[in-house]
Structures are given as C-alpha cells and as structure tokens.
C-alpha cells in the first residue's frame, strides 16, 4: 500500500470528524451537509472530499513538499477549522443528570412548572394544594402565578444561551438525543446545566494535559 493510500484509508477510518470540519470551515457548508464526509483523493496541494454525493476541493496551503508532511498539516488544518468555526477541541459526549443541590433545584423548578402550567393545582381543594398545605400560606400561590412568566422567560434565555455558547462550540449535534437532554434540563433548572458542563470540560482538559 502506498503512503497516499494509507493516509486516505487512515483519514476515512479515524478522522472523519476532521474531514467534516474541513468542509464546513473551508467550503462553507453546514454540518448536516458535511456529515459522513469521505476523503476520495489526496495530493500535495488539495484534498478531494465527498459528502452526500457532492465533491469538494479543499486546498492545502502552502503546498506540501511530499506526503510525509500530511500528518502535521492535517493537525494544523483541524485546529484552524475549529478556530474558524468557533468550536472547541473538546467534544461534549455525555449528559450528566443533576445531583445533590442541583437535583433539589431541578425538583423545585419542575414542581414550579407543574403547578404553573395547570393553575387548578394552586386552587383550594386540589390534591397538590392540600398536600403542600398551601392553605397556611394563601399568598404563595398568587406569588407563583406572578413569577411564572418571568421565570419561564429567564429559563428560555438561559436555554438559548446554552445552545449558542456551549453546546454548539462543544460539537454537540443540534437536535440529537444528547442535545435534547441538555436543552430540556436547562429549560427546567437553568444555570445548573452550565455548571455541570463546565466541570466536564475542566476534567477533559486535565485528562488531555496528562496524556500529552
């Protein structure tokens, strides 16, 4: 097997994510259009990548002297692609459910949504009203109703911020199962989602530092 064939096989087998990034960064297509990118051919001056039946030419600048430079160039192009796209080298690969204080806050927020979206729960005589003993604090249901639109608005803004400033840069595919878990979690609890993701990123950076 020639060095060129080996490189093509290696890129397609182990670095398909990089090929997709190259198409997004240098050819201006979307992540959906770049999905399942496949390196078809390689020269010292460009990559020929196919995605969804369309062939793209990605320039290698400056041109390589020979294929022995390929690994270093691919690494550099990967990092440059991430920078151009505003992405992180770290990929968020898991959902972490709230625990401890975060779990308590999640539960309280979820209860808030349940009571608010069915106002009858806050009326005297309802099972929830009686169970929580709200007759002892008659002002509380009124306060909850007043706060509802503000709490929902804040959590919607936090969820949008999570998608734009955190999930997208951390390479979480939009509308994937993982994406929905974090989005729905943030909509319920708010800031706690950011805290857990930051902890994940910190752990990955420490792990990457040890492996280098």
UniProtKB/TrEMBL annotation:
Transmembrane segments: none annotated. It holds the Pfam family DUF2470. InterPro entries: DUF2470 (IPR019595), Haem_oxidase_HugZ-like_sf (IPR037119). It comes from the Eukaryota. Gene3D superfamilies: PNP-oxidase-like. Residues 4-77 form the DUF2470 domain. PANTHER family: MEMBRANE PROTEIN, PUTATIVE (AFU_ORTHOLOGUE AFUA_1G04315)-RELATED. This is DUF2470 domain-containing protein. It comes from Penicillium coprophilum.
